[in-house]
Design goal:
The chain has helices at 6-22, 24-44, 63-74, 87-96, 109-114, 130-159, 183-214, 216-221, 227-255, 265-289, 293-310, 322-328, 332-346, 350-379, and strands at residues 52-58, 78-83, 101-105, 119-126, 169-176. With 380 residues, it is α/β, with parallel strands linked by helices. The chain has two domains: 52-176, abc type-2 transporter like domain (abc type-2 transporter like fold); 183-379, no CATH class. Helix 2 runs parallel beside helix 11 and helix 9 (227-255) packs across helix 10 (265-289). The longest helix is centred in the middle third of the chain and has 32 residues, at 183-214. It is elongated, with a radius of gyration of 28 Å.
Length: 380
């Protein structure tokens, strides 16, 4: 048996350090990525629900109603910045996702408060995200209790005796879109986008790299085939695979988990195909840049993990710092999640989804153009 030789060991050690130093992409990822991930995830992973956009329909327009709105703002759970004049406007805000809650103050609110009577305020909550809905309902109940105790104390001082056991202020909460607040109803639609992104981006990112590693790319280059023909020939099979995956995921969600979309299924298929094309372009771009399958996997991982946290898949984007919200806007998954949840949970159509659809179209065109240009350079 050959003895352990320090000379050979040190020689191999030096060789590996030289390889690592020359492999700049892997070295940068190994050093910079942990710090970047910690900074991003440290701020993005926030289970505290704060500053949710809220609309207010103040039919009373009194000092008491304005004080109530101020008290709601002071909870820091809701930001009642938008004021409306009817249920139709409230529905528009809630359907579009511009508001996660609505406060409706009745016309006789001030009269009842000043008349030592019990007043009721209706609170509508977007239940599509059960975590957010429970936090809002808990905050509203606590606020109602505190305001009732305050009013009760003031009435005791004014009357010299307790006016009764009835609560002076009642918040009547009503949950929209997901009345039972089931997490499955919220998660299953989002998983459609997440699974499509993960599977298709990974498969596509390996397509060109595999040709490079096997040495078959040179054989394709010397053939009369043009770069566009080769690129489309590689993309179309993955479009088919992605569409089949979409059908299987959708069927499983509906028939196994019982999560049925309220909105248009044909619209869901059309917009999912648009998202699929965008992800294919990302995978093709990664495949054109990466030199090995390991690099392609690392680059895909760098894309996928932040997109899960910053897109609103797990944590509400409203609770994130502004910088991370802007960073999350760079991921197509962010916009597709709003689309798929809007169709599944709210039953909305293009009248509320057109902005997210246009952004996805812009992503698809831009990424395909960059991928096609990079693909031609790879062939050259």
């Amino acid at each position: 048996m050959q003895r352990f030789a320090w000379v050979r060991f040190i020689a191999v050690l030096k060789k590996e350090f030289i390889h690592i130093r020359r492999d700049r992409p892997s070295l940068i990822m190994a050093i910079a990525m942990p710090i970047a991930m910690l900074l991003i995830f440290g701020y993005a992973i926030n289970t505290n629900v704060e500053h949710l956009p809220t609309v207010v329909w103040d039919q009373a327009q009194t000092v008491d109603s304005r004080e109530l709105v101020t008290s709601i703002r002071n909870t820091q759970y809701m930001d009642p910045d938008n004021f409306v004049q009817g249920y139709q406007e409230i529905e528009g805000y809630m359907d579009s996702g511009k508001a996660r809650a609505a406060v409706i103050i009745p016309p006789d609110f001030g009269k009842k408060i000043q008349g030592m009577e019990s007043a009721s305020v209706q609170v509508l909550v977007d239940g599509s995200d059960p975590t957010v809905a429970r936090a809002v309902m808990s905050a509203v109940q606590m606020l109602g209790l505190n305001k009732s105790l305050q009013l009760q104390s003031e009435r005791i001082v004014a009357m010299g005796t307790a006016p009764g056991l009835e609560m002076p202020l009642n918040f009547e909460t009503r949950v929209w879109y997901n009345p039972d607040m089931k997490s499955m109803v919220f998660n299953i639609p989002a998983l459609i986008g997440l699974i499509l992104q993960n599977v298709i981006a990974m498969l596509t990112s390996f397509s060109i790299v595999r040709e490079k590693e096997r040495g078959t790319m040179e054989q394709l280059v010397v053939t009369p085939i043009r770069p566009l023909e080769l690129m489309l020939g590689k993309l179309i099979p993955f479009v088919f695979i992605g569409f089949v995956s979409l059908c299987l995921i959708l069927a499983t969600g509906i028939f196994w988990f019982g999560v049925v979309p309220i909105g248009s299924i044909p619209l869901l298929f059309v917009l999912s195909t648009l998202f699929l094309i965008t992800i294919l372009a990302i995978g093709l771009l990664i495949s054109s840049i990466a030199k090995t399958q390991l690099q392609a996997m690392q680059m895909t991982f760098i894309l996928l993990l932040p997109s899960i946290l910053l897109s609103g898949f797990i944590f509400p984007r409203e609770t994130m710092p502004t910088l991370l919200q802007l960073l999350g806007g760079l991921f197509p998954l962010t916009y597709f999640l709003r689309i798929v949840r809007g169709i599944f949970l709210k039953g909305v159509g293009m009248e509320y989804l057109w902005q997210d659809t246009l952004i996805l179209c812009a992503f698809a065109v831009l990424l395909l153009a960059i991928a096609a240009k990079k693909f031609k350079k790879t062939l050259d």
